[in-house]
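Appendix B. Chain record.
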Amino acid sequence: MHISRKSRWLPALAIVTLATACGGEAPPKDPLTTDAAQDGVQEVRQQKSRKIFYTIPSPMETAALLKRAGAAYDARIPNDVRNVDRYTTASKQALNLGVYGADLSYASVHNQTQESMFYTSCSKRLAENLGVTGVFNESVLERMERNMNNRDSLLDIISTTYWDVDAYMKENGRENISALMITGGWIEGLYIATQVAAEKGSLELRQRVAEQKHSLNDLIGLLNTYPDDPTLAGPRADLQALAELFLPVMTGSAGESVTVENGVTVVGAGQTTPAAITDEQFTAIRDKVAEIRNNYIK
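Structure tokens predicted for this chain:
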């Protein structure tokens, strides 16, 4: 359920097709800026960002889980590339840069070359609209083209690119945009996981959903370092509402077995502390995530 990994890629022969798929003229910029953070706050933000990144399953881990679950790529799940022109404000552009990044990872782990090209093109456009002109450069696109058949290398490039966007925003006093991008990617990653888990009944994916209670708390902590920023008030409220649904979810160290006992998914073995999420809890989280995510992509 990865989110904050980075994206670039656009084979030269597909430029016309991609431009059509992701709309025509770029929407006007509406840049968000924020005052420079004090050193202590800056350090807290960096720590929260790292924790969020490392507690979210990597694209390869998610791919392995999807493969074990027998889940094929579902083109209905990601955000439609034709929606990209709807995002005319910086906040929407930042949220959906994260959304399309998660969709890019989802398509890439399933070797969906054409879909990945589309999501990369949309990510590139949103990044450019936000003023991140140096990240999605020709060198990166050429590397993606050369590695389009090497999933591991491609995912590494995707990951690196999104961290470059994150770093660029922070270096240019636009950390709130970075926070929005991380939020969008996290929500989309959880949305994909809950949709696939519900469809396939995967116990391992349900376990990953339960484990996101930790990263959700870190994400809320990150947004709380911007107490006076109105652009983050809505996403913060969304995450806090979601956190209420996660409260009764039991998390712990992963075990060696996954079982269902009286309607409760339990992962654990031996002396490990199991993680558990009931069917009711899972359904409530799945529906709330879908509501939040669908509001972001409008």
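Further analysis of this model is presented in Appendix C.
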